[in-house]
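Support request, please re-run this one:
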Amino acid sequence: MRTRRAPGGSRPLYLPCQGTNIALTIDDGPDPQWTPRILALLARYQVRATFCVIGRHAAAYPNLIRAIVEGGHQVANHTFTHPIPLGRLTPAAVRAEIGSRPGVAHIVTTILTQARPGSIILDHDGGGDRQQTVDALGIVLPRLIDAGYHFTQP
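Re-run finished. Output below.
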């Protein structure tokens, strides 16, 4: 989980909330392999999320955008190509950006220890192998619901 930052990146951005509201965002898709799996988990637990989609992926998979909307989720613009200034990174940092995966246990622990009312949980359905995300969401969604959190959309 990463916490979204306010413009300028100076402080974490939290959802204006009442009670135990939290939000879930799913970034960088849609992806034909991972988005349907995440949508199935969200439907199973009756969780609504905001999908921050990359325009070129949305154009390539309009059926997935339809499925997101039909599932009661919001769609947000995450640029058309999601440019990353990789040229500013060291070779080691580029390798880490492309291939590092934190592991299911790390994702679960991060979400469960950092979630609090107003949290915005950021996960991904695009950008490579997202099996760890799918597995982690299958663990954390019921735990957060059992802990009394209510998912809302920003």
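The beta strands are 21-27, 50-53, 74-77, 120-124, 150-152. The chain has a mean pLDDT of 85.
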